[in-house]
Amino acid sequence: MEHAATFADPAAAQAPGAGGTVPFFTQAASFADLWPLTEANLNAVIDRGKYSHGHLVAEFESVLAERIGAAHVIGVNSGTDALVLLLRAAGLGPGDEVVVPAFSFVASASSVALAHGRPAFADIDPVTYGIDPASAADAITDRTRMIMPVHLFSQLADMAAITEVAEQYALTVVEDSAEAIGMRWDGVHAGLLGIGGVLSFFPTKTLGALGDAGAVITNDDRIAETAAALRHHGRYGRTIDHFPGISNETVLPGLNSKMDDFQAAILLAKLTRLDADIARRAELAAAYTERLTGCPGVRRLPTVVEREVKTDAVFYVYLIEVERRDELVAHLAANGVTTETYYPVPLHRQPCFAELGHRAGEFPNAEAACAHAVALPLYPDLAERQVDRVCELIRAFYSGSRP
């Protein structure tokens, strides 16, 4: 059965940034190209009448697991929930500490609190923005049970050094790999280097849905089984033909965090062009670097660190550090360019963690990044003429001229 589903004005979707504006993110043009496959997937969901935790979610989990080399992918309703469920499945108990970087999205630390643990903050490496292994070691106490590297923006944290610290102190490694789809360390996908990781499918992500969605990824059977139960009120099983029926017993106090089949329909379609999207992001990142190298006022451009093993970088975000960051952001906005500030307040200075008693200046690399970092528009629909426009505006700002 065909259902009424059309893409609004696909011709307009082919011209993002019309009128000289450059949005921080849009997927209008690429989504128009994907609409026939997406529509077919959505029709299949509607025809079957199972809209959550159903066949398309199971299919997406299977396809993604094969692609990233994971034994298990557990679809949930957000990357944040995925972190909470992973921490609980990994055995985090009340008061247990998890070492997390002070520079990250708040969910990296709030997920620990929501899982009844306690975040212990560490500084970051100023080049990769990943947790600094030496600072992480300094944060360990007799209550520390886990360490959570966060893979931010374009590359993995130093997993060799982090694993060494974890082994020395008998800690479990859980990865906040929410941004890291496609990133690999010596052939192993991000999130599978410790006991498990997560993926976020927030719309702006490299693989994004049209709303919130996420996944727990792991090679550990016990972690997978527990996370799968926790996402569905602590009950095992699922209501689709090739899985057992849902148990009537609630084994664990869980959440309602099932993935919607409508989001799985979107993600299955977008998976077909993920490689092309990753390649396009790399091209655009290279164009930014070429145009901004040597620009006055730009303190740091993204640098992918070469390791002793092969690593695969993926540019989810193109992050630069600049002088007078907030003034530059206002200048770009006034000229139609939208940016994002990652992250204006370090986690140890967030009001929700005030009881931990941290002071300004404790984690200087994290605090410097918070004061200077800004993300420029980067997505497959972005045109190089728009990259030119953004870079021209940045150079004009620091030269004192105005376009």
Automatic annotation (TrEMBL):
InterPro entries (alphabetical): DegT/StrS_aminotransferase, PyrdxlP-dep_Trfase, PyrdxlP-dep_Trfase_major, PyrdxlP-dep_Trfase_small
Residues annotated with N6-(pyridoxal phosphate)lysine modification: K205
Annotated CDD domains: AHBA_syn (cd00616)
Keywords: Pyridoxal phosphate
GO biological process: polysaccharide biosynthetic process
Active site, per annotation: K205
Pfam families from the UniProt entry: DegT_DnrJ_EryC1 (PF01041)
GO molecular function: pyridoxal phosphate binding; transaminase activity
PANTHER family hit by this protein: 3-OXO-GLUCOSE-6-PHOSPHATE:GLUTAMATE AMINOTRANSFERASE, TRANSAMINASE
Family (UniProt): Belongs to the DegT/DnrJ/EryC1 family.
Protein name in the entry: dTDP-4-amino-4,6-dideoxygalactose transaminase
The organism's taxonomic lineage, starting at the top: Bacteria, Bacillati, Actinomycetota, Actinomycetes, Pseudonocardiales
